Amino acid sequence: MAAPKKGRGPAGGGQGRPGRSLALILIVMVALAGGMFLSGHTTPRLGIDLAGGTSITLQAKSQPGKPDAINETNMNTAVGIIERRVNGLGVSEAEVQTQGSSNIIVNIPKGTNSEQARKQVGTTAQLFFRPVLTVEASGSDATPSASATPSGSASPSASASASAKATDGETAKDSGTSDSSASPSPSATTQGRAVTGALTEDATPSASASAGATAATDDAAATDTASPSASTDPATAKLQAEFAALDCSDPKQRAAAGQDAKETDTIVACGSNTPGSYEKYVLGPAEVSGGDVDNAQGAIDQSTGQWIVSMEFTSKGAKKFNKITSTLAQQTSPMNQFAIVLDGEVVSAPSVASALSANAQISGSFTQQEAEDLGNILSYGALPLTFKEASVTTVTAALGGEQLQAGLIAGAIGLALVVIYLVAYYRGLATIALLSLLVSGILTYTIMALLGPAIGFALNLPAVCGAIVAIGITADSFIVYFERVRDEIREGRTLRPAIERAWPRARRTILVSDFVSFLAAAVLFVVTVGKVQGFAFTLGLTTVLDVVVVFFFTKPVMTLMGRTKFFSSGHPWSGLDPKRLGAKPPLRRSRRVNSSTDPKEA
């Protein structure tokens, strides 16, 4: 007799112990809700279209001599670097993706660092470390003389300008004397910043080697000590003319300076030490690139309490950095400085006090923001391509709020229509459906709130649409089960057996339907980008939760409801009234009698 009981087991699916399933899903709900409140993230993160923010389209620029530079590999590398750069500012909800073959879309949600992130996203060119040959306050009448040529010593005008800047602007780490004719200390700089670190064991280069390493234009001028004047060299004369004519206070000239230059070129460039003041530079060929920086970050010097930027180089970069700093340490200001050039602009020009290797620190009058910005640029600034801003779209928080409100209203209308249909057609069974929808909503909300800080999930308008579609998918599962139960009652069975016999058939249908929905969501997530992925992700998540709710809540609750008098007696408002369903028990009894008497009649 054990065999028949065992046969009912699979059909019942845990008929005798529905409380265990309910207890399990209740524990999960409490754990998720507790984790949500303990983490402090009680609401899902919102995307740009709901919370407001900025969307930037960056277009890759063709590079001279590199017609095939704009390719899939370089674009994907640029996406990764831009994403790390923006996320390094704490804007972890930022979205960076390619569009077409030459565009990158950067979505920056409105937040504490969103404006700062936008500025750094627009700065997307390559990063180089170049030796400083001449520096001068923008708008000065002085022109470069010997210092613009490979002479190995700074020109008087450049030295005077450097000294004036050190006293009028930021204070140098070791400012030396105020006399412009005196040789400044190795750490003096026009920006009041210096690079320090451990002294290497490499031999100190000779003066002639130092002069050669800081050559600015061509080998002929570097070796011609009898004629240090650069006026006979057309290339140097052109460079002097560009430097003399450059006015860094002019935004157009400032933006054009240093653009589209090769690593081996000597260039003129602009920089700004303080807001509203500018310096113009003559910079030698690039000695170190941004790709040679392994890590950099702003930090507080524990000995001085001042903000500094610490740098770590790759093994290859450490050798390059050691070579250039060994050379620069022997020079006088400003030729003992190297400029950190990003997007053709000098973002910092610290001086070198000694030969450095794998680790170094840039110290000076940094604010916290300046130190963190420079560290972020050094860490993530080396892009394989240069970009220009093709378009910038800003969504205000008010507009985002309106879109969120519209999405919620649409969801409420959809839910109301489902509720009206369930109550009108299924009556008492609608209670089970509404409780199941409530459980599904709680699980969806808590999981979305926790996924924000966990994986950076941001709820956008398409994701809200996915959640609205999920209401119909979840309700469809209930309807499948309810109709299977009704079919069993129409065949003359009482409610409790009907519930258990209907479950295996309904379960197969629900699993197949949800599998198709999940497969569609997974394919959509893989083959699309951007906001459409939010729709696919939400649809897939709610589809999985539908299976969980139906198995661990709807079926156990249905079993418990079947034991109550209201449902088991077939009350007219239960939704399971045999008369309303068209059940015909006499017809079934007649069939049994006929089947049992036929053999005797035969």
Salient structural properties:
602 residues, alpha+beta, 5-stranded mixed beta barrel, 5-stranded mixed beta sheet, 20 helices, 15 strands, disordered N terminus, disordered C terminus
Please provide a written account of the structure.
With 602 residues, the chain is α+β, with helices and mostly antiparallel strands. The chain has helices spanning 2-12, 18-39, 48-51, 72-87, 114-122, 156-168, 207-213, 219-223, 234-245, 251-256, 315-328, 368-380, 397-426, 429-455, 461-490, 495-527, 531-561, 565-568, 578-581, 585-601; strands spanning 53-60, 95-99, 103-109, 127-137, 193-196, 267-271, 279-283, 288-289, 293-300, 307-313, 338-342, 345-348, 351-352, 359-366, 387-395. The strands form three sheets. Strands 4-7-6-12-11 form a five-stranded mixed barrel. A hairpin with a 6-residue loop joins strand 9 and strand 10. The longest helix is centred in the C-terminal third of the chain and has 33 residues, at 495-527. It is elongated and about 110 Å long.
